[in-house]
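Dear support,

Our group has been running a series of protein-ligand predictions, and this particular one with flavin-adenine dinucleotide is the one our PI (initials K.S.) wants archived with full inputs and outputs. We had some confusion internally about which version of the output was final, so please treat the block below as the authoritative record. The input we submitted was:
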Amino acid sequence: MGQPLSSITIVGGGTAGWLAAVYLRRACAERIRITLIESPNIPTVGVGEATVPQMPFTLRQIGLDERTFFRRCDATFKTGVMFRNWNTDRKGKLVSYLNPFSNAPSLDGVSIGNHFHAFGAGKRDYVSCYSPYAHMAKAFKGPFSFKDPKADPMPKPAYAYHLNAVAFAKLLAEVGTERGIEHVLDDVDDVELDERGYVAALQLRERGRHPVELVIDCTGFRGRIIREALDEPFEDYSDYLGNDRAMALQIPHTNPEKLPPFTSSTALGAGWSWSVPLFNRVGTGYVFSSAHRTDDEARDEFLAHLGAAAPPGSEPRVIPMRIGRSRRAWVKNCIAMGLSGGFIEPLESTAIHMIDQSIRMLLFNMPSTDYEAPVRRRFNRLVDDLYGEVRDFICLHYRMGNREDSAYWIDARTELKITDRLAENLELWQYQLPTQHDLESAQLFTHDTYQTVLFGKRCYENGYGAERLNTPREVRAGSWKAYLRDADIRFAKIVDYKGDHHRLLMAL
Ligand code: FAD
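Confirmed final output from the archive:
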């Protein structure tokens, strides 16, 4: 019989390492010693600045004051992702859409997507019909400019953050060490395995041998323990997702008073460019495919896209990306979290969320010193499900693209694989809109989110499902017309058009 763990060792001092350390310190009994070992020589990846709406909940769980977080991490509110130029409309004009953190309501028990498809909405796009965030995005409002959330007939608002990744890890480190986490600045030079192949100890450059029970590998893309010491195979996703490089740059705001409350993703010739508005600067970058652009070509294209927004002499930092994951995240007594466990391109800002989920899963599946196989298997299955969900959703954006103006976009649509599950759903959704029955174990991307992408990309106007989509008989033009007629009044009641995002943050 195994004994309760008396210690957990975390290697890596990036977002993954420190988030895991602070979470575990908060959740585990004091008798479990938590040590975080971080190399003073290997920098963190230093990107990863957009999050998903679980994040406010996470801050509460780890006991981090939200206002302190805003001030220390130059944080802003994020209410969704603005996709620009990923698709064209019927006339071949490039289109943009917001994918907001709010779900579409139904009308007369039928998805408003059906009403929108059957009767149109004049000049409104799909999201503007239901989401106050679409209105806030246009007016640079933050989510707290809801006047009275209780009186809001719409679904409860949700928000996430944009944050400075380096400052966030630093804040977590401060909080963690105050709460008793042992912080060791040293390099893991070697990993000692016992006769069963379990990690027995880490060889530190300065401090020597450090014995371990459970070890969490947060060493970034390299995977110092899971891959280099335990030799766990890497499951490559390049057949599904073609982007394998990124370049990152920090630039000043062009208008600091107008802070967008959303992340932007703008399609370029061989990938897409992100823009994450922090309070004091913008984090931007280009995620691209090396099969379609050299680094020099990508840099020129990226800087041309930024234009005058990039200060003269800007030199983006190139980051090679390994897309895929460790076949198992938990092997013997080692669990990989963060980039060491795997990475899916950052289109939907999911990596920090996946770290967060892995920690929660570990708390539900905490082993004894026997590292019970069923517990490991369950944890690994949950991680599998999460990767599968995120991969499918990202693949959707490429498969349903319709740009014809570069080899990259044509290849992304026609050469990249999708899973059978996604293929089956895409076949179905030509006839009916996505429903909650179509996606098993969806934790993050619900059928509603899929529906927003399909409408945002104008798929139902452009061939796919345009004539085939069934309209349930219950859809009545009258109630839709009344709904739209009242929409502006409803939004004016909900949204405080006086308070803007910048002023809101200044007041925090
Ligand atoms: P790292 O930050 O690389 O940290 C690794 C740590 O391990 C470092 O402290 C290093 O010193 C230590 N280490 C390494 N080897 C040793 C050793 N031998 N001994 C001791 N210590 C060692 N995520 C999001 O959620 N949203 C986004 O918008 C987003 N955008 C991204 C954009 C790009 C281009 C990329 C590449 C990633 C993005 N991510 C995003 C992912 C996000 O950056 C990471 O998930 C997050 O930063 C966690 O990184 P990490 O802690 O796993 O690794």
